[in-house]
Structure formats: C-alpha cells, structure tokens
Design brief:
The structure holds two protein chains of two kinds. By secondary structure, chain A is mainly beta. Chain A contains no helices and eleven strands. In chain A, a hairpin with a 3-residue loop joins strand 9 and strand 10. Helix content of chain B is about 0%, strand content about 65%. Chain B has no helices and eleven strands. In chain B, strand 9 and strand 10 (about 95-100) form a beta hairpin. The termini of chain B are far apart. Classes of the chains: A mainly beta, B mainly beta.
Chain lengths: ~110, ~110
C-alpha cells in the first residue's frame, strides 16, 4: 500500500519556540493532505486540510496564525506550530488520500 | 454538524467475539471507515462501507445500515494483539476528509 512519512517522530521544545513537522507521501502524489491532533485517550481531531498550491482550510476553532500549513509540492506538506505552549503538547498525525486515507506514523510534540 | 458515537471502553476475552458499535448523524453521508490504532501509533485501515450490509475480511467484519445511521465492527477469534483503540470515521460527499468518532478502547484479557 501507499506510504506516508512524518518527520520528526518525536520533538521536545521550550515554550515560545516554533516547531516544524513534515508530512511526505513517498510513492504517490497528494494534492490534498490532512492534519490531525490527538490528545491522550482521545480520538483524532481534524485541524486542517492542506491544499497543494493554495491556502489551507482550517477547521473551526483552529488558529490559522498559530498552526501554519504549507503544501509546497505534491508530496510534501508542513505544519509549523508557532510560539508553542505546553497546551500544544499532543500527537500530530497527517494523512493523504489515495484509494483510502493513508496515515503518517505521527509526531509526538512535548512543549516544556 | 456531525455526531459520531462509540462506547469509550470494552473488554473481551481471548478467543471470543466482540462487536463495537458506531452511530452517526451526518448530512451527505458518503461512507464509513474503521481504523485500528495501537497506543502511540498512527491508525491503520481496517474496512470501508458505503452500501448497506456486511463486509467480511478475515477475522474482522464491518456492517452498515445507512437508514439507521449505524455501523459495527465485529472481531472474531480475539487475540491479545487486538487490544487497541478502534475508530470509526465518516466521509461526506464532495470532501475526502474524515470525521472521527470518539474511539473505543478494547482490552483483551486471557
């Protein structure tokens, strides 16, 4: 099946810094990718839809200026958490659709 | 809006059968997915239903009733490795994005 990678898998940062997470579709092209956030013992919550060549579409309640999304190519989308705070600590997962949604392995962000 | 509900937790015995239910309310329904997620890992695809009826795939089967807004995932011959969270998710016409249910944490006991 299709493969989606994420980098880094785990990141620890200080409060106030920015963190960039990459999502790549390795063997297929994706004009659309999705970013999810998952807090402990909770389900996945869609944050935004990343669109190649145009602006991302954010879900209600998600701050556009805090979670910057760039879909620079047909195989790469990046999520930047700006001025991270401890409450942003979470598991961030991306997905890309082909015949079904293929999920990346996730990025565990811990903000101290 | 959308409303997707699942039981929060379930426990079942190794070798037995368990059914995990999912009810949903959504306009423009265009399919329901089931995913398995082990702790700290990304979800993995289990099944997809868009028409009413039962889809069987090895030990796992999934059922959909569109008129009732209801689906279930049936796991047979349970194994310890089946301990995981099971997520149902729906899609709507004209949009590939998934909206996930609350997830069911399944624990298999010997």
């Amino acid at each position: 099946g299709a493969v989606v990678s994420q980098h880094p898998s785990r990141v620890i940062c200080k409060s106030g810094t920015s963190v960039k997470i990459e999502c790549r579709s390795l063997d297929f092209q994706a004009t659309t990718m999705f970013w999810y956030r998952q807090f402990p013992k909770q389900s996945l919550m869609l944050m935004a839809t990343s669109n190649e060549g145009s602006k991302a579409t954010y879900e209600q309640g998600v701050e556009k200026d805090k979670f910057l999304i760039n879909h620079a190519s047909l195989t790469l989308s990046t999520l930047t958490v700006t001025s991270a705070h401890p409450e942003d600590s979470s598991f961030y997962i991306c997905s890309a659709p082909m015949d079904t949604q293929y999920f990346g392995p996730g990025t565990r962000l811990t903000v101290l | 809006g959308q409303n997707i509900d699942q039981p929060t937790e379930m426990t079942a015995t190794e070798g037995a059968i368990v059914q995990i239910n999912c009810t949903y309310q959504t306009s423009g329904f265009n399919g329901l997915f089931w995913y398995q997620q082990h702790a700290g890992e990304a979800p993995t695809f289990l099944s997809y239903n868009v028409l009413d009826g039962l889809e069987e795939k090895g030990r796992f089967s999934s059922f959909l009733s569109r008129s009732k807004g209801y689906s279930y995932l049936l796991l047979k011959e349970l194994q310890m490795k089946d301990s995981a969270s099971y997520l149902c998710a729906v899609t709507r016409f004209g949009n590939e994005k998934l909206t996930f249910g609350t997830g069911t944490r399944l624990t298999i006991i010997p």
